[in-house]
Amino acid sequence: MNEYINLNLENIENEHICCAIGDKKHNDGVILKKEWLKERIKEGHVFRKLNARGKVFIEYAPAESAWAPVEGENFMYIYCLWVAGSFKGNGYGNELLEYAIKDSRNKGKDGICTISSKKKKPFLSEKKFFEKYGFKVIDSIGDYELLFLSFNDKNPKFNETAKKMEIDTKDFTIYYSPECPYTINCIKEIEESAKENKVCINIIKVDSLEKAKNIPCVFNNWANFKNGKFISNTLLNKNSFEKLILAK
């Protein structure tokens, strides 16, 4: 049987968090992510990973305390389910999702949900995988969909603020949170590039539950706006940022 570990306040300092293994440029992001997790674990956040040096994990939390623009009571929200590289095709994703579903039922939740999309997008779980377990689209914003597995008749939904998908400023704007360890280095590269290219940017750190719940777009840990319009949830580095800002 495969061995998994759930992070807790006792083991978190000695365990890796899967995403940024061995990449020194993400050290600051890992530190901030762990600090963020320490607070979230107290709220019922679950980070479960394979006991191996690889990117195999699921991360979910009670919707009331989940840093995402979804609303509803007594259900779980999945931030991320990731199986990468040579670990693919071994059933780990199935085992992780099945654990989350069972755990949610055992905790008396009314269901479990996650953000996906009509067509596969980076940094979001694939819709078809969840559909195999009975997840259905319960709400949508453009190409983005809120998938939900209901244990009774209650349903979650996107917050009304998320449906705006636009902001007042025309400056290139990024919303990000410490939920993902990659975001910190991404912001560092983008700030340096913006300075080099003399581009006005607006970077907004989502550092509270209130901000995350009331963000003006679909959000899991990152969102890009150009000319006041939401364009993607894709994390950017120096090269991808410059392609966007220099594009005519």
Could you explain how this protein is built, in words?
The protein has 248 residues and is an alpha+beta fold. The protein has 2 domains: 4-159, Aminopeptidase (3-Layer(aba) Sandwich), CATH 3.40.630; 162-246, Glutaredoxin (3-Layer(aba) Sandwich). Helices cover 26% and strands 27% of the residues. It has 6 helices and 13 strands. The termini are far apart.
Radius of gyration: 18 Å
Oligomer state equals single chain
Tally of DSSP β-strands:
13
- How would a textbook summarize the main sheet? 7 strands, mixed
Kindly, what is the distance between the CA atoms of the first and last residues, rounded to a whole number of angstroms? 54 Å
The domain count comes to 2
Query: Helical percent range?
Result: 25-40%
* Top-tier CATH class of the largest domain: Alpha Beta
Number of helices, where a helix is a run of at least 4 consecutive DSSP H or I residues: 6
Overall SS class: alpha+beta
CATH-defined fold name of the largest domain: Aminopeptidase
| 3D shape | globular
Order of strands across the biggest sheet?
Answer: 1-2-3-5-6-8-7
Q: What's the CATH architecture of the largest domain?
A: 3-Layer(aba) Sandwich
Proportion of strand residues: 25-35%
Kindly report the average pLDDT value: 95
Q: Topology as H/E string?
A: EHEEEEHEHEEEEHEHEEH
Low-confidence stretches: none
